[in-house]
Amino acid sequence: MELLKGNNLFLRALEKEDLQFLYELENNTHIWEISGTVTPYSKTVLQFYLENAHRDIYDVKQLRLVICGTEGNTLGLIDLFDFDPKHRRAGVGIVVIKETDRNKGVGAEALQILCDYAFTVLELKQLYANILEDNGRGIHLFQKLGFVKVGVKKDWISSNGEYKNEVLFQKIND
After folding, report:
1. Residue ranges covered by each domain of the chain
2. pLDDT confidence of residue 101
3. 44-51 contacts, C-beta under 8 A, 24 or more apart
4. I want to staple 90 with a disulfide (CB 3.0 to 4.6 A). Which of 24, 80, 149, 155 is the partner?
5. What is the C-alpha to C-alpha distance for residues 84 and 139, in angstroms, rounded to an integer?
């Protein structure tokens, strides 16, 4: 199997042609709750981000990859963030954009590819994910891929005038 390629999809670096896709994603208020975003992004800011997306994970502590179907169609994004090479760990975030692409194995395959890359190429010891307690699909996805619930952050996320708990999951590469 090629690096960053699965049976039904592949992961690739961001390209300048992804500007419109990023603009729509980053300005989707339904995603703001999980991304911590509170203001819209301009195309100018996102263009600057794309111009710097080539920078090394050891420099910027983040790796954002586009999830693509076998025909090259864009399905979502998957990130490694808070990359810590000393302690050999990173956070993982994933979003599959269209509802019609969810519950079809896209997230599981993308997450498996990223885990394999993180553990094999980056030689990480562990990955972690922060998932809202009411995100049953997200919790199921990470548990399916071997992530274990290790804690709950009470009243962690403020959303629409109420607080939500966030669950911390870890996957340790033994």
Report:
1. 9-172
2. 84
3. 46/19, 46/22, 47/16, 47/19, 49/22, 50/14, 50/15, 50/16, 50/18, 50/19, 50/22, 51/16
4. 80
5. 24
Query: Three-state SS for 115?
Result: helix
At the fourth CATH level, the homologous superfamily of domain 9-172 is Gcn5-related N-acetyltransferase (GNAT) (3.40.630.30)
CB 14 within 8 A of CB 63: no
pTM of the model: 0.90
Amino acid at the residue 115: C
Pairing of strands 74-84, 63-69: antiparallel
Question: 131 Cβ partners below 8 Å, 6+ apart?
Answer: 138, 139, 142, 166, 167, 169
d(CA 10, CA 164): 33
Q: Is the pLDDT of residue 90 over 60?
A: yes
Q: What is the CA radius of gyration of the chain?
A: 16
| SS3 state of residue 119 | helix
Identity at 161, one-letter amino acid code:
G
* Assigned token pair, 78: 């998957």
- State the chain's mean pLDDT as an integer: 91
